[in-house]
Amino acid sequence: QNIGLINPTLEMLSVHLDINFTANLVGLNDTTGVVDHVYVIDNRTNVLDAGIRYNVGTTSDEFTAAGIIHTNSGTFTNAYYSSKVVVNGSYINKFIIEPVLYSNTGGTYSQLVYDSTVYLLSVTVGTSTFVIKTPNVYAVGETTSVIKSGTTSTLNDEDDLWYFYASDSYPLLLGLNYSNGVYEISNAIDFLFFARVISFITVANGTTYTNADYVLTDHIDMSEVAAGAFRTATSTKTIIFIT
Fold it and tell me: FRET label pair with 71: which of 173, 223, 235, 238, CA 20 to 30 Å apart?
């Protein structure tokens, strides 16, 4: 729960005939498993750089891959995938692929989305073009702007934990509570994110985060986070803390 991968590297460069399916995050989500609020973003633009690298050699077996989970028998909710390809262009001709979930075997799933603007249904490598199967019904395709803006009907409902920054990023699992005209910083995680969000250009609640007001609602204990986790804010604007 609450984890994302950006530009993941998953490689199997030796042939293993007993392993014929793979995924970036979970191979098999078993009956008691819960995968919730996760994402995979691969923003590498070259199909020979992006995607899973899995050498299946000359075997004639069928190989399958998924962007997030391959087989779901448990609970899989609130996830998104953004990449041109699931499998690297060097190996894509050997695979049947799905952007989010390949197979659902008695499990439950909801609110799964992939970026239809980015995801390729035709991949060209050198002089060869490979047609990618139309994604299955488990995930909904939405455009980049819809996913980022929060107008997505797939991820944005009252029970979700996503925060939307339309001009800066895909949905994040980090955000600050907004109350009475100020953003609240209540703990060390909030403070880490504060240093990041004030560089965003997204307009929220009528102003940019750089020009917003912030309030410390409690003592901040930075020992709760890893050493070096705090990065100095890049914004040059003056930030007002209300006390």
Answer: 173
